[in-house]
Amino acid sequence: MGMFNNRKRWRVPAGVEPTALDRRVMAMESRGALVPKRTLIRTPEQIEGIKRSGVINTAILDLVGEKIHAGMSTLEIDELVHNYTIEHGAIPATLGYEGYPKSVCTSINEVVCHGIPSAKEILKEGDIINVDCTTILDGYYADASRMFVIGETTPRKQKLVDVAKECLEIGMEAAKPFGFVGDIGNAIERHAHKNGFSVVRDLCGHGVGLKFHDDPEVLHYGKKGTGMLLVPGMVFTIEPMINMGTWKVFIDSADGWTVITEDELPSAQWEHTFLMTETGLEILTH
Ligand code: MF3
Ligand code: CO
Ligand code: CO
User: Fold this and answer.
1) Distance CA 86, CA 12 (A)
2) I need a surface site. Which of 119, 135, 199, 252 has the fewest CB within 10 A?
3) Which residues of 89-125 are buried (b: 16+ CB within 10 A; e: fewer)?
4) What DSSP character marks residue 121?
5) 67, burial (CB in 10 Å: exposed 0-12, middle 13-18, buried 19+)
6) Is the CB of 143 under 6 A from ligand 1?
7) What CA–CA distances, in Å, run from 239 to 46, 247, 271?
């Protein structure tokens, strides 16, 4: 009974002298905090690798920003992303990921995320689109997404795009070393609600870097002081999906991927990959 109840997540390998940081995290774990596994702390070499992947990822989204226009199909965006990625010695992480068929996600208007590029889907004036790209370089993952507005859109949709971006920035500011993941979600949720928008609850940010989806789970809503402890060296995304109407979503049964708002009102999302440092978050995808 209780044989495994004292199994710790933060384990200092045998023969390694615990640092001040080790002792601080172990003390917090003893007091009941959900701490990351120690293996989630990235080495300087790993961080350099993720940064190099982030440079390519950023260049891809910059390229999409230069080329995107009304009349273009989302398949053409996929081709841009795919070709740039391969030409720079990298791999598009989504291609073949759990059966996902393309090199990028393109999510227009009421599509929240995981929209699949298609030759039949043509961008038109007033559309708002999220382009979400994950790059693997030398085994290191970088994951980011941006909104693009096609020509001019309505003030309401523009506001949604702007508030979603502010939510990412405010979430980033709320993340402090030895704070908690819940501090991020709480700040995001407050900002969204203050502006009359809602936060998608079914999808979250995630640890990234050596794998596509790792610990921690980064909810974009919730209470301060909840969730996993934030320790310098952790790498994760924040990627709030902000809706104009209800937060509720469903998956399109036609493809099993496309996430759509239940009321079919628009949704907007921005994402970066971040490193937790001694002072706060550093963006690895810009
Ligand atoms: N890039 C998305 C994220 O931010 C995941 C896309 S997975 C896919 O986590 F299979 F839908 F492409
Ligand atoms: Co992500
Ligand atoms: Co992403």
Assistant:
1) 39
2) 119
3) ebbbbbbeeeebebbbbbbbbbbbbbbbbeeebebee
4) -
5) exposed
6) yes
7) 22, 15, 4
Ligand 1 proximity of 285 Cβ (cutoff 6 Å) = no
In short, whether 214's Cβ falls inside 6 Å of ligand 1 is: no
Contact between 249 and 92 under an 8 Å Cβ cutoff? The reply is no
Residue showing tokens 């795919």: 82
Atom of ligand 1 nearest to the CA of 239: 4
Atom of ligand 1 nearest to the CA of 105: 12
Give the tokens for residue 63: 């390229």
pLDDT tens digits for range 146-188: 999 999 999 999 999 999 999 999 999 999 999 999 999 999 9
Stated pTM of the model: 0.97
Q: What average pLDDT does this structure show over 63-82? A: 98
Task: Answer yes or no: is the C-beta of 94 below 6 A from any ligand 1 atom.
Answer: yes
Residue type, 261: T
Q: Are strands 205-207 and 214-218 parallel, antiparallel or unpaired?
A: antiparallel
- Domain ranges in the chain are 39-283
Tokens 């971040």 sit at which residue? 274
d(Cα 176, Cα 34) in Å, to the nearest integer?
Answer: 16
**Owner of token pair 């995304």:** 237
- β-strands 281-283, 272-276 pairing: antiparallel
Closest to 251 measured CA to CA, from 198, 182, 214, 202:
202
Query: Could you read off the pLDDT of 5-39 as tens digits, one per residue?
Result: 678 999 999 999 999 999 999 999 999 999 999 99
Provide mean pLDDT across the span 91-106. 98
- Long-range pairs of 103-106 with CB within 8 A, sequence gap ≥ 24: 103/78, 103/133, 104/77, 104/78, 104/131, 104/132, 104/133, 105/130, 105/131, 105/132, 105/133, 105/145, 106/74, 106/77, 106/78, 106/130, 106/131, 106/132
3-state SS, residue 215: strand
